[in-house]
Amino acid sequence: MTDVHEIADGIYRISTPVPPSVVPGGFTFNQYLVRDEAPLLFHTGPRMLFDAVRGAVDRVLPVETLRYVSFSHVEADECGTLNRFLALAPRAVPLCGQV
Questions:
Q1: Which residues contact 94 (CB under 8 A, 6 or more apart)?
Q2: What are the two backbone dihedrals, phi and then psi, of residue 41, each rounded to the nearest 5 degrees?
């Protein structure tokens, strides 16, 4: 079950625990959503969690209003569903630093 908690004014943590049967040892994936004039999703999560993360974003704001989709580095758990979010949010642009 994916949870959404407002951790500061307008900032939400999206958390999805994954059991040991899916990820050895179990794991919790987290994304952060900033509700603002230009909403930002930080980390998209892996492909297997797209529906859960999308649903969590929709609980806070319409996913199509995202303006930025950001991630810290290129790995499947950070930006695995980047293209799917960009397809749903036509004004959104990806953000990532150069390393």
A1: 68, 69, 70, 71, 79, 82, 86
A2: -110, 125
Sign of the alpha-carbon torsion through 61, 16, 95, 54: negative
Exposure string over 12-27, b if 16+ CB within 10 A, otherwise e? bbbebebeeeeeeeee
Determine the Cα–Cα distance for residues 4 and 13; give it in Å rounded to an integer. Answer: 6
Residues 8, 98: Cα–Cα separation, whole Å: 28
Angle CA(78)–CA(31)–CA(72) in degrees, nearest 5? 40
> Consecutive sets of 10 residues in the chain, 99 residues long: mean pLDDT of each?
96 95 90 97 93 97 97 80 94 86
**The Cα angle at residue 47 between residues 38 and 30, in degrees rounded to 5:** 55
pTM comes to 0.90
Please identify which residue in the block is written with the tokens 């407002």.
6
Q: How many residues does the chain have?
A: 99
